Amino acid sequence: MNISEDIRRPIEGAIGEYERFLARHMTSSNEVVKGIFDYIIANGGKGFRPAMVLLSAGMNAAAEGGGPGMRSYLGAMLVEMMHAASLVHDDVIDQSDLRRGKPSVRAMWGSRSAVIAGDMLLAKSITVGLDSGQYDIVDYVTRAMSELCEGELIQSEQSRRLEMTREIYLDIIRKKTGILFGVSAGVGAMSVGAGRERIAAMREFGEWVGMAFQVRDDILDYDVSTDTGKPACNDLQEHKITLPLLVVLERASEERRAELLELLGSADSVPENVGLLREAVVSGGGIAEAEAVMAALVARARGVLASFGPSEFHLGLLALADCAAGRRR
């Protein structure tokens, strides 16, 4: 996991155990399949979601003198493989050759193998949970899949129609990103035997953090000076109306709104339109307003966590929330 020391410190030992658990189960006797799995896991990004599982498990078990265990590692693996599979599939849908600055699975092995590999990640991780009898953990995590897919479908339809409202945008990012962060925090608490109220509170905390994470992603898409591992303004080229542009559309006159939407509709075929839209977003205060919304989401997350007693895991979760919103890539 590529996470800061403030996040890593409370779960240093658990991270090692989790990574060994992951390597033990997410592998294959077939060298081709093993190579694809190893590539996906090695390029898995910062590991915010499994870190949230382990921190939540640690905080909720601390009162009994316990910490993350096998059930926590299973929960972390399930959420991370669900996330990894969604990214592998996204790169096929978007025909992307890069993921985090490196060749995508699609670019390395082709679209057909990438789709199957994504499916296999899900199937194999779920099978591990079922074989070990951890039905509650598997049920809790996998129920998130339908909402994640629904969020993507809603965004695709809104992009096709070049329509968006603040309410629909927030619903999309909750389903696309917030839900899996929420499940990560919730399953961490569940894995150590926390009660329903604590599990629900942890899930709420995670959802606010995940939504802030997605807003930061949408802001970074406009940053041409930062190497995010994917093309700048990619959302505009895919006709996506994310919060920075939405803010400007909300403030625009009817005539100006129509003009901006016309530019967006051909942004994939007219490169100049991307620059014009980006300039309109920056000069129109879209980035600044999106950052304010993101800060409010983090504040709501921190407010939920305020009801939990102080601990090193508590501080780690607060650091994770701040990092999710403050990252540069």
Calculate Rg over CA atoms.
20 Å
Looking at the chains present, what oligomeric state does this protein adopt? single chain
What is the arithmetic mean of pLDDT? 94
> Any guess at the CATH architecture?
Orthogonal Bundle
The major pleated sheet works out as: 2 strands, antiparallel
Strand order of the largest sheet: 1-2
Fraction of residues in β-strands: under 5%
CATH third-level topology: Farnesyl Diphosphate Synthase
From the helix content, strand content and strand pairing, which structural class follows? mainly alpha
Gap between N and C termini, in Å? 15 Å
Low-confidence stretches: none
Element string (H = helix, E = strand): HHHHHEEHHHHHHHHHHHH
The CATH class label is Mainly Alpha
Query: What's the CATH H-level superfamily name?
Result: Farnesyl Diphosphate Synthase
What is the domain tally? Answer: 1
| Fraction of helical residues | over 70%
Shape: globular
- Helical element count? 17
Total strand count, please?
A: 2
Describe the structure.
With 329 residues, the protein is mostly helical. The protein has a single domain, classed as Farnesyl Diphosphate Synthase (Orthogonal Bundle). It contains 17 helices and 2 strands. Strands 1-2 form a two-stranded antiparallel sheet. Strand 1 (98-99) and strand 2 (102-103) form a beta hairpin. The longest helix is centred in the middle third of the chain and has 26 residues, at 166-191. The mean pLDDT is 94.
